[in-house]
Every structure is written in structure tokens, then in C-alpha cells.
Write the C-alpha cells for this entry.
Amino acid sequence: MAATSTVLVGGLALAPAQPAAADPAGVQRVLDWEQPADRTLPTAAPPQFNKQWATAYGATNTTGAARDGSYAVRFELRKSDPVVSGSKRAEISQRDEQPANAERWYGFSTQLASTWAHDTSAEIVSQWHQCDLGCPGGSPPLALLTDEGRWKIDFRGQFIDLGPYTTGAWVDWVFHVTWRTDSAGLLQVWKDGERVVHRTGATHGGGPRSPYFKFGIYKWDWNTGAPSSVTQRVLHHDALRLGDERAAYEDVSPQRGCTRTAAVTAASATTHEPVNPPAHAVDGDLTTRWSGQGFGAALTLDTGAVRRLCGASVAWHRGDLRWNDYTLHASADGVSYTKVWEGRSSGTTTAPETVLCTTGSLDVRHLRISFWANPENDWASITEARPLVL
């Protein structure tokens, strides 16, 4: 149901509020390698995980590249490495102890080394394996892989293309899965805060337990003799958080703070001066502005895709001389909007000011900023505005 704007009574406004605190009980395991007890590599896997590599370089802790804190894990797999668990792999595996019909959250970051060149052969970098005993055989029901120079997801034999990969850069992933064999199943995937997959229906093929998570490098073609033009793969992995049904996106997301600005593909407004159009509020220039007259004048920003919104950054013309009362509404489809914040700018700066959604983070594409009052006149004038995403 679309939300409607409400004028702030008597010029009063709510102060910016923080989103609800994450429920720590919903996060079952954090593996960011910052705890000394977890840095057991390469001898053994950290507690609650299993080792699936055969060399001293297969899985090692490193401080050379870290997404979260000071440490990360570096995986290296060579074509000449021994076979482990039936194939060529260097992986860390969750134990096969997930209950049936489990709802799970998985947040982590991956970084492909600069040597990760295009290959004629694909490789899995994260997978969800069906249980070891009493489950159907075959390929994992869900896997994240690189293939043909692109990120792809293999979901029950169907490949979903997520675009080209870039080496030497961290990519943040969040997977939300309800493991079911009937229509109640759910798969959602976010890449760097953008929702790239939303599927309902069966998520695995059956068995007494739900699939379990594995991460690292698995390159089956090196074991089968299929064509491959490379002999080495190096990958970094960090910021792993595993959550259950009590968790939420922000509990497991590698992006721990609401600081990432989303690109705006289009800006529109309910009203504007010809010399101060909506585009001036997203041009990166604090000396230009959008101006629209009237209480309720609204600026709408389109990010071009559904993303995980957590707040907004707004800079006001004459923001150091007057406060502005305004509301934020967000929408996934541009039709139904939900109020996510209301309040007042500080009145002390022309710089962008950050406000956080009081609803917590949510998946949206459009952000609407509606002006209600200032102490000087009935003009809304915003010099720069950006959605903030996790």
C-alpha cells in the first residue's frame, strides 16, 4: 500500500534516528579472521568448519588484502594439486548439520587476484552442497562461479549472469535462502548492495537436512581433463557472517556502515524552476541546485535498479542559514512508496548531511525527498542528494 506524506505540525520535526540494532542472536557465526582462534590456516580449518585443501598454500591467512579488519583468507589452487574429496579444490566447508527447511543468511566478500585471467573453463568460488548422506547426488543446488569473464550463479542447473568481473577489487555478497523442496522456498542475492536475484519455489532437491555452505576455489575441469588455459587461481575471501531466520540483511552484510552512495540514473521533481532543474541536484556540484516552490515539493531519485537502501545524503541551498523539514519515501516500483524517515536538517551547514532510515534497510529503486517547511519561505532548494545503500 502506498504511503502518503504528512505535513509536520507546528514546524516540529523528528530528530534523525538510527535503524534498529541488529539482533546478535541471529548471527550464528562470524569468520572475519580477526579472532586468533580462527587463524588456524593452513594446518586446519577454523572451529565449526572442515578442511578441503591439500597444500601449504591452499588456504592461508594474509594481511596483504582485507575487506574487514586486518586479516583475510587467501586461497590458491594449482592445476597440479592433488585431488581432494574427488576433485581439484581448495575450500573451507561448513559442517553438514543444517536442519531441514532452514532459513539462512550468508554475507561475505570475494576478491579475485589480478592474475585471475579469462579461462575457457569455469570455477566455483562459493557453493551450497546438498547433505552428504540421504540426499540426491549431482551438482550443488546453488553456486557462485566465474565463467567466460563473468560472475554467474548456478541455481538448480539454471545459469544467471551477473555481469563481468573485475580483478583486484572486493565484491560484497549477501545470499538469503529458505531451503525448501516446495513452493515456499526463496532465493535472494545482492551484489554490492544491488539485488540481482529474487526467486521463489524449490531451492534444493531434497534430503533430511538443508544444504551447507562452502567457499574457496573448486575447479572440476582440472580433474576431468577438460580444456583449460590457466594453471593457477588465487582468490581472497573475508567478512563471512552466517545468520539464521532471526537475522536480517544488515546483520550479515560486509558493508557494516551506511556510507556507500548509490549512483542516480535519473532525477525528476513535482515542480522546478527552469534555471534550477532536478538534474542539478545530482550533478556533483554544490554550487548548482534543484528548486521547487510549495510545501510538498518533491525530488525523486532513480538508482536504475533495486538496491538495499539504508539512508540518504542531502545538501540544502542556504543550509547554513536555515533548517528544512522534509520526509523520505522509498519505492521498489515507482508506484507504491513507504515513508522511511522524517525530520529536519541542521540549519548549520551547506555540506551534505546523512540521515538513516528509521525502518532499517530495505530493497528499493526510487527515493523521494519531500519538502515541508523552512523559516524563510516556501521554496525547496537542494544542491546535492544521494541515496545511501549497504
